[in-house]
Amino acid sequence: MTARAVTDPHVNAQRRILTVLALTQVIGTIGVGVAPSIGVLLAGQVTDDEAWAGLARTSSTLGAALLGLPLGALAARRGRRVALTSGWWIAALGAALLVVAAQGGLVVPLFAGLLLIGAGSAVSLQARFAATDLAAPQHRARSLALVVWVGTAGMVLGPNLGVPGAWLGAVTGLDVFAAAFLIAAAACLALAGLLVLILLRPDPLTLARHGERTTPAEAAPAPDAAAEDAVAPAVHGRMRRAAAALRGNPTARLAVLAILTAQVVMVAIMTMTPVHLVHHGGSVTVVGLTISLHIAGMYALAPLVGIVADRLGHRAAIGIGTGVLALSLLVGALRPDALGGIALSLALLGVGWSFVNVSGSALFSGAVPLRSRASAQGGVDALSNLCGAVAAFASGSLLAASSFSVLAVIGLVALVPLAAATLRAGRPRSAAAPLIS
C-alpha cells in the first residue's frame, strides 16, 4: 500500500471533522457567550449583593476549570465525540437551570447553572485540540486556529441573545433573562451536542490512535507512553498521566507555561479594564468598544496566527506573542489615563494572547503522546481556566490597592519566565517540524 493510499483517507476525514467542529463551535459558543453578559446581569438581579454577584460571575469560569479534566479523561476513554457531546449537553442543563433561576429569582439554580454552563467553555477549548488529532504536523496550528476563529461568531452573537429573548418573553410570559437562557439551552447548546453526536464520525482521536497502532513507523510506543499504559484508569491515575506527559518533556513544559502565562496576563488586565475606564470617565459605549477590540484581537486574526506559527515554528510564534503582550502592557503602564491608549493596549493584548495560545496549544498537541494526549489536554485547559479565575480575583484587589499602571507592570514581570524559557528553548530545527525538541 502506498503512502498516498494511507494518507488520503485521513486527509478526507480531517476535512469533514474540521467542518463539523467549525459548525458546532459557532452554534455552541453562542450559547456559552450568554454567560459573561446576560449571566452577569442575572447574577446581580438574583443575589442583590455585590459580593455574591461577584462570586456568581466567576462560577462559569470555575465550572470550566472543574469540568475540563473529567471531560478530557472522557475523551481519552471514549473519544472526542462522546466527550464533546457530553460537554455541550451538560452546558445545556446549566442553561436550563438558569431559566429556573431567572424566572423564580432562585440563588441555588443560579450558581449551579453558571457552574454547569462552564462545561460549554471546556468543550469549546477541547474542540480546538480535536482539530489537531488528524492534522499533518505542518498544519496543526492552522487547523487549531480555524476552530478558535469560528468561535468569534458565537462570542459576538451570544451576548445579544437578550434581543430574541425579549421577543420570546413577550410571547411566552417568561422573564427576558429566562427566555434568553432557554434559547441558549435548546437552540444552541443542546443542538451543538446533537450535531456532534450525529456528525463527528469518524472520531478523530480514535482514528488517530488506530493510525498510530497500524503504522509501522509508530508501532512501538514511546517509552513514556508505554509507562502510562501501566497507570490505573482511575481519576488520580489520569492526573498522573497528565503529569507524566510533562516529566522529561521540555517541549510540553514550554507549551504549558505559554498557555498559562498568556491566560493569566490576559484575564487579569481584561477583567479590570472596564472598571478602570469607568473610573476615568469612560462611557458604557467606550467600554463596549474597547472590549470588542480586545475580542477581535483574540480571535479575528487566528487563521493568520496559525499560518505564521506553522511556517516560522511554534516557539518563534510564542516569542512574537510574548513581545506583543509586553508591548500591550507597556502602553497600558505608560498611558493609563488615555482612553485611546487603553483601547490600543487591549487590542494588542488580544493579539498577543492569540499568538501565544494558538502556538502553545499546537506545540502541546504535537509534544504529548497520543495515549495520554486527551487527558493531558483536558488537564491543561482546566488549569488554564483555574489560573484565569484566580487572576480575575487577584486583579481586583491589586487595582484597588495600587493602580492600573502597577497592574500592567506586574503583568510584565509575569512574562519574564516565559520569555526566558522561549529563548532558552532555541529555534526549531526546521519550520516543517517544529514540535519536538
Structure description:
α6 crosses α18 (370-401), α7 (140-157) packs antiparallel against α14 and α13 runs antiparallel to α19. Residues 1-7, 213-235 and 427-437 have low confidence and may be disordered. The protein is mostly helical and 437 residues long. It is built from 19 helices and no strands. The protein has 2 domains: 1-220, MFS general substrate transporter like domains (Growth Hormone, Chain: A), CATH 1.20.1250.20; 224-437, MFS general substrate transporter like domains (Growth Hormone, Chain: A), CATH 1.20.1250. It is globular, with a radius of gyration of 21 Å. The chain has helices at 3-32, 35-47, 50-57, 59-78, 80-104, 107-130, 140-157, 162-172, 176-199, 204-214, 223-229, 235-244, 250-279, 284-299, 302-312, 314-334, 339-367, 370-401, 404-425. Helices cover 83% and strands 0% of the residues.
Tally of structural domains: 2
For this structure, what is the CATH class of the largest domain? Mainly Alpha
SSE arrangement, N to C:
HHHHHHHHHHHHHHHHHHH
Sheet-strand content, in percent, reads under 5%
Overall geometric form: globular
The largest sheet, given as strand count, sense and whether it forms a barrel, is: none
CATH superfamily of the largest domain: MFS general substrate transporter like domains
